[in-house]
Structures are given as C-alpha cells and as structure tokens.
Specification:
Keywords: Cell membrane, Membrane, Plasmid, Transmembrane, Transmembrane helix, Transport. The longest helix has 35 residues. By secondary structure, the chain is α+β, with helices and mostly antiparallel strands. It has a domain of 212 residues: MetI-like fold (Orthogonal Bundle). Strand 8 and strand 9 form a beta hairpin. It has a five-stranded antiparallel beta sheet with strand order 4-3-9-8-5, with helices on one face. A two-stranded antiparallel sheet has the order 1-2. Strands 6-7 form a two-stranded antiparallel ribbon. The chain is built from twelve helices and nine strands.
Length: 393
C-alpha cells in the first residue's frame, strides 16, 4: 500500500486553480502578462532613438538611425565583414557561448549543490568563488593569454570563469532555502538519502538554478567581447571591436543588436521552460487523502493537515497539532513531549481505520484516522464519511 492514497475529489475552480500572484495594494502587481507593456516600451525606445538621431541632437557619426542600422545589417549579411560572413561571425560566438555554458553548468551545479549540502565544501569553495567573482574578466584576461595561449581554449576558459560563479552560488542558495519541514516530511515517509536529493532537494533548488543560469548567460554575453579580443578573426565581439577602430558605429550597433537578440532568445527559452521543469514549486493538493504510516514507500509529499492527536492510554486529546511536528514525532525526529503525547509504537505498527469524530459538540470535518497502537492520528480530509482500507487486507 502506498504512503498516500488520493481519493476522488470534487473538482472546483478554486481547487484546480494554481497559486497566483496576489495583487498588492498601491502597486498593481497581478497575474496578467506584461508582454504588451514590454513591447510598447521597446517601441517607445526605438522611436526616441530615431527622434534623437533624426533631429540631430547627437552627431550622425556617433548615433545612426535605426533604419540605417537595419540597412547595414542587410549589407553585412550579403557581403560579410572583415573577411567573414555574418553567419560565420554569429556561429563562432554561439559556439563559444554554448560550450562555455555547458562546462559552467556541468561544474557549477554540482559544486553549488555540494556547498549547500556540506559545510566543509562550503567552507573550502565559498571564499575563492566570492573572491574572484566580482573581478571584471578583463582583469585576468592577460593571465589567460599567458597561461593558455591565444587559441579557443583561453577564450572559452575566460567565459567559463565568468559564468560558473553565478550558477554555483544560485545552486547553493536554492539548497539553503529548502524548508527543513519538507525534508523531515519526506524522511518521515521513509525517504532515503538519494530519494531525498532527487525528489526534494533538487526540485526545490531548480528554480534558483535556472535563475543562476539566466544570470550567467547574461554575464557570458557581456564577457564575449573581451574573450574575442584574444587574437580572434571571427565572432560578434571581434566584429564590434574591429568596427569601433574605424568609427563604423552602424556596424557596432549591428553587433550589439545581434548579441541582444541571441541573449534574449536564450533567456526567454529558460524562462518559458521553468514552469514545466520545476515540480518542487507546484501548488500542493488537498483532498480526500489517507496516509499509510505502516508501509514507507517514499512518494512526493502532498500537503495533509494533521489537526489532532489522541492518546487512549492517557485520555489526552490535542487540537491544532501540525502535520510536520506529528510526522517528526512519529519518525523520531522530534521529542514527543513537545506535542503532549507519547509514541507507543513505530511507523510499521500502524493501522488505518475509520471514526466519526466530534469537536466541541459539532460534527467534525475530520474522518480519516490512523491508529498507531494506542495513538490516534486525525487527518484533515474534506469528507464526511470515508473508510480507508485496512493494512491487514
């Protein structure tokens, strides 16, 4: 028998609706999309740019009009620039960014998770990462050239060093922000160390990890120009630096626009993939549930409010007992004295039965009862009468 059995529930709009943003009085933060506002802002910036350039507030040499930038992009696409086509420049930059991102993700996520789970790892790795992370990449660019030469290795290494720190620190923050109650709930249901990591720690840290990857990609694109200073003949950063030497500001703006489009595409892809890849942040379900405390096949934790505990031996009835504290007590993670009851048996001696309870003379909404030898655990289930299967069946 599984730990948690979900019985059919009455579907309502409120229950099916996921947790949404609460509007804040005076700020207007709500659940509506901001895409239209963002598009309007982008169009306003383009219009302001065109007006400043067209009216001559800034010399044309320093600020070409948006239509001239688009025209120059078409020219570069057709004729190329600095001995390479536009696609070759874009492909070279994308190759460096993607390879560096894969290396940074492969190393940064495990290191960050290890720092969040182990204090020794945090003590060893935290100081070096915090020391070099604020340093601008140009400060250690000469060292990359001296140590690794002027090939692709030095460029990719520079990007990796710029990108790995945000990913590592975000993964660590994701683990550190994990509520201990969620871990104890999974341990109470019999979860092992590997299952705790895969089902609890990793899903809970995943939103922070994805945020760190987005930040790291932004840092990587901003470092790309510095990386392509190292004897490069291909790349968007090389194209920008080469054009700036000849005051070809329209080509510079073409390179900036391409980097912005690529960075936005990467960031949007991570943002739109986040809801489906973060089960740890999904809204918890409530309904007609029974918890089998006897058999501990770990499952994903569903929120079940344990409201009261009754001890037949001492005739004690405690109301308002939290589910986490009760599970901690049953599993030996917390002393029984803190919840006013003694634990007479372990999880494997529990049985599931049905009882009609009354609370202060009124019929209670609590109907599912788990009897653990002399202890009765009452679960909050939205039902009037429900008979759970016996463990002996």
């Amino acid at each position: 028998m599984s730990d948690i059995t979900q019985a059919p529930t009455v579907a309502t709009d409120v229950e099916d609706r996921q947790i949404k943003l609460v509007k804040m009085a005076g700020f207007g933060a709500g659940e509506k999309s901001t895409v239209a506002i963002s598009l309007a802002t982008a169009l306003a910036i383009l219009l302001l740019w065109w007006l400043i350039s067209a009216l001559g507030f800034v010399p044309h040499l320093f600020l070409p009009r948006p239509d001239e930038v688009l025209t120059q992009m078409g020219v570069i696409y057709r004729d190329g620039y600095a001995g390479a086509s536009l696609s070759e420049h874009v492909s070279a930059s994308l190759f460096r960014i993607v390879v560096a991102a894969l290396i940074a993700i492969s190393a940064g996520i495990p290191l960050g998770l290890l720092m969040g789970l182990n204090r020794w790892a945090k003590g060893v790795l935290d100081a070096p990462i915090e020391f070099y992370w604020p340093l601008p990449p140009l400060s250690y660019l000469p060292l990359m050239i001296i140590w690794l030469g002027i090939g692709e290795t030095s460029r990719i290494t520079l990007l990796v060093l710029a990108m790995i720190a945000p990913i590592c620190l975000s993964a660590q923050a994701g683990v550190r922000s994990l509520p201990i109650e969620r871990v104890n709930a999974a341990r109470s249901l019999g979860g092992g160390r590997l299952q705790l990591f895969l089902d609890i720690v990793l899903p809970s840290a995943l939103p922070e990890i994805l945020t760190g990857i987005r930040i790291a990609l932004g840092v990587g694109w901003s470092t790309l120009v510095a990386a392509e200073l190292i004897a490069s003949t291909r790349g968007i950063g090389f194209m920008i630096m080469s054009a700036s030497q000849f005051l070809a500001t329209d080509v510079v703006f073409v390179g900036i626009a391409i980097i912005a489009i690529c960075a936005f595409t990467f960031s949007a892809g991570i943002r739109f993939s986040r809801p489906s890849s973060c089960p740890g942040r999904a809204s918890y379900e409530r309904g007609q549930c029974t918890v089998n405390l006897a058999e501990s096949a770990p499952r994903r934790w569903r929120q079940i409010n344990i409201c009261s505990l009754h001890d037949d031996r001492r005739k004690r009835f405690t109301v308002g007992l939290g589910k986490q504290r009760l599970h901690q007590t049953v599993d030996g993670l917390a002393p029984a004295s803190r919840v006013g009851a003694r634990i007479f048996g372990r999880r494997r001696s529990a049985t599931i039965s049905h009882a009609n309870l009354r609370n202060r003379g009124k019929p209670a909404k609590l109907a599912v009862v788990a009897v653990m030898r002399k202890m009765i655990i009452t679960l909050n289930a939205r039902m009037r009468e429900y008979r759970a299967p016996s463990l002996d069946a």
